[in-house]
Design goal:
- By secondary structure, the chain is α/β, with parallel strands linked by helices.
- The chain has a single domain, classed as LigB-like (Protocatechuate 4,5-dioxygenase, Chain B), CATH 3.40.830.
- It has nine helices and eleven strands.
- Strands 1, 2, 3, 6, 7, 8, 9, 10 and 11 form a nine-stranded mixed beta sheet that branches.
- A hairpin with a 2-residue loop joins β4 and β5.
Length: about 280
């Protein structure tokens, strides 16, 4: 079983405190302003998908709450694939985890059947690659808060090239096509510009957000690389766009760490919650 790596750092280490922290994210002024009520189940036949941030809850939790509230109103899938970037050196360019994930809210079981279908070739099965990483972990308690029995499929990307993203996107498309009878969702975990003034962050991120709005993985790659946008999860985001192949996405909320802390900061990290499908 994977033990939490950032409980007590990125979010509260107790079940009671974590639940309060998640609900405070929903009620925050930057958040959507309401806590989800008894979410239903997402139906089979087509996946739903979001881009979500992954910083400490006091910074990105209110923005993430927009995506999770939107999911709650539409229906929570039985299985959620979580795509995250690696912030640490790991053994493989791409890998999936198949062991259960523990958080203060309980155990999130992995949908081993779907995880095995994503693994193979360039995508390793390597639970050890996930030990230190926060980008996937911070999404799990938000999901457990909505639906404790939802299963996850964690996939981590050290290689965030467009080629790697297309490979992951193709694997996801094949998985969707092979299981029209399954209720599936996908989260791409990323923060946007890091450690710039709010004005610079907003101006830079506008180019990345426009590429995402148009559903273009190729344009996102060009903008991030060409403008040196310090978005930490372009690979997962491009993989999601490649998998879903939508003509347009919907920005639910864009804000930064100063907005969330309700305090002036010279340099901020920016976050977005985006409905992709």
């Amino acid at each position: 079983m994977r033990s939490p790596a950032v409980a007590g750092q990125f979010y509260d280490a107790t079940a009671r405190g974590l639940k309060r922290q998640i609900e405070a994210s929903y009620r925050h002024g930057v958040g959507p302003g309401e806590v989800p009520k008894e979410p239903g189940r997402w139906p089979e036949g087509r996946p739903l998908a979001y881009v979500v941030p992954h910083a400490g809850y006091v910074f990105s939790g209110p923005v993430a709450a927009h995506a999770f509230l939107d999911m709650a109103k539409r229906g929570v899938p039985d299985t959620v694939v979580i795509l995250g970037p690696s912030h640490h050196p790991i053994a493989h360019p791409l890998s999936v985890s198949m062991e259960p994930w523990q958080t203060p809210l309980g155990t999130a079981e992995v949908d081993a059947d779907l995880a095995q279908e994503l693994a193979g070739g360039p995508v390793a099965h390597a639970d050890g690659d996930f030990e230190q990483e926060h980008s996937l972990e911070v999404e799990v308690p938000f999901l457990q808060h909505l639906r404790p029995d939802a299963r996850i499929v964690p996939l981590i990307m050290l290689d965030q090239s467009l080629g790697a993203a297309r490979l992951v996107g193709e694997r996801l498309r094949r998985l969707f096509e092979a299981h029209p009878d399954r209720s599936v969702g996908v989260l791409a975990s990323t923060d946007f510009t890091h450690y710039k003034t709010p004005e610079v962050a907003r101006a830079q991120d506008a180019f990345a957000l426009e590429a995402i709005r148009r559903g273009s993985a190729e344009e996102l790659d060009r903008q991030v690389r060409g403008r040196d946008i310090s978005m930490c999860g372009p690979g997962p985001t491009m993989a999601l766009l490649d998998a879903m192949r939508v003509k347009e996405t919907h920005l639910l909320r864009y804000a930064n760490s100063a907005d969330a802390k309700v305090a002036p900061m010279r340099d901020v990290v920016a976050y977005a919650a985006i409905r992709v499908a």
